């Protein structure tokens, strides 16, 4: 007789995985969660809102995962998975409520799956949202053994009259950039082409560990700012770097004028540039040291920068909004 296990799918390893990850999801439960991991669907009860709008986002970690395979370190990419989703929905002023993950592999290893979900859990705790469900798919012959893919889905909430949509942005408004933690989760196809030695020393660390530095989660900082200040627009600097992402906060025709000497470019980006990537390509691929950008009234800019730094993040006035045209001008 032939069993499912003979085809390469180990159901018992799946059961073990679920039991291992339950403790990580429970740490994230916030008011509103009304069932446990293991049901057919996660449930979340909404309360305390007058005219709520649900805001959703989904994303993955991309080819950064290959660095994790080679380093045999899987905990940080789970944080990346959460960050890529919650930072996106944050751009519209949404508070993340709950998160679901999807893990796919060729051969399931419960310990590796637990490490991945542990990272997702850490990310959810940083974002203040609950990990209420997910899926682990074992697909032998489709993924090579030892390879994993991970993606996530976040749902947040915002009062309809508090949605940040760029509609109030005006000529002369100031752009404030909040520092990134490193490369985050974009541009790794280029990174992997250029950097082969993950064991080399880079500023006192293994290069592989530098490349696995997880994406910063900006949720608590931004939600705190929104209680005190009028934030007109926001951009998460992901794939496409400055050039593609900053204009996404504009509803009308504006140009973002960015001063290249206004913030510190991380050493890892300077190193990548030294390997033959020109500066224009860098700003169109990477975050260059700025992971999140907000647009504010000039009268509030200095106070907002001071408040961000009081909360523990580095922030810079990186430029301003100019009426007309469309896109980004870096000078």
Please provide a written account of the structure:
The structure is a single chain. With 331 residues, this protein is α+β, with helices and mostly antiparallel strands. It has two domains: 4-159, PurM-like, N-terminal domain (60s Ribosomal Protein L30, Chain: A); 173-330, Alpha-Beta Complex (Phosphoribosyl-aminoimidazole Synthetase, Chain A, domain 2), CATH 3.90.650. Helix content is 32%, strand content 24%. Helix 1 (11-26) packs parallel to helix 4 (110-127) and helix 3 (75-90) packs parallel to helix 4. The protein is globular and about 75 Å long. The N and C termini lie far apart (70 Å). The mean pLDDT is 93. Its EC number is 6.3.3.1. It is found in: Cytoplasm. Belongs to the AIR synthase family. Pathway: Purine metabolism; IMP biosynthesis via de novo pathway; 5-amino-1-(5-phospho-D-ribosyl)imidazole from N(2)-formyl-N(1)-(5-phospho-D-ribosyl)glycinamide: step 2/2. Residues 170-327 form the PurM-like C-terminal domain.
Content of β-strand: 15-25%
CATH class categorisation of the largest domain: Alpha Beta
CATH fold name of the largest domain? Phosphoribosyl-aminoimidazole Synthetase, Chain A, domain 2
Distance between the termini: 70 Å
Q: In which range does the helix fraction lie?
A: 25-40%
Structural class: alpha+beta
CATH superfamily of the largest domain: PurM-like C-terminal domain
Question: Concise description?
Answer:
The chain is an alpha+beta fold and 331 residues long.
SSE layout:
Blueprint: H1 11-26, E1 52-60, H2 64-71, H3 75-90, E2 95-105, H4 110-127, E3 130-138, E4 148-159, E5 174-179, H5 188-194, E6 201-202, E7 205-206, H6 207-211, H7 219-226, E8 233-236, H8 241-245, E9 254-258, H9 267-274, H10 279-283, E10 290-296, H11 301-310, E11 315-323, E12 327-330
Helix pairs in contact: 1-4, 3-4
Enzyme class: ligase
Pfam families: AIRS, AIRS_C
InterPro entries: PurM-like_C_dom, PurM-like_C_sf, PurM-like_N, PurM-like_N_sf, PurM_cligase
